[in-house]
Known about the structure:
This protein is α+β, with helices and mostly antiparallel strands.
Amino acid sequence: MAQESIDKSLLQTFVPVNALSGDQLDWLLDQQEVCRYASGDALFSLGDQDNTTIYLLSGRVELTDEDGNSHTVSAGDTASWHPLEHVQPRRSTAKAVGEVSVVRFDSFRLDTILSWDQSAGYVILDINANSAYQNDREWMIRLLKSKLFHRVPPTNILEIFRRLKATRHKEGEVIIRQGEAADCCYILKEGVC
């Protein structure tokens, strides 16, 4: 089983990954694991709880359920746009029919980024609609799209923005000192530190 990587255009063919914004797709690309399998290799087995979401990149996979019923998914078919047997524990065994390559993602991380991206879209709409943010929209949206907020629940982001207090500092003024106890987070709105 060899590992490699895929590009963003291929990632955008998968459902629901194709709903992600460009920045989130870039983050997801960093999380990918591409694997190749030889004919007859098992990608996963009935009952597995591997917490991975798997998309077929090339080849064919045979899925066989506990009753012995099977069907084949081929790369490029509509079925291959969706994860292979995404329910956990797995309800079937997947075996490679010929050489196969797949891309794997940690399911929890994928679900988190999908939820975050959708919720962040609503936050951006709120920022654009709120006249109080008129002069701050650009930097707030840029900050929202940064990795800083990826672990913050989107419902809390507007509250964080509401609690921000602008302060001005003169050139050469010390804002924080290394080793001092931290009591807040500073975000550079304009200027250079």
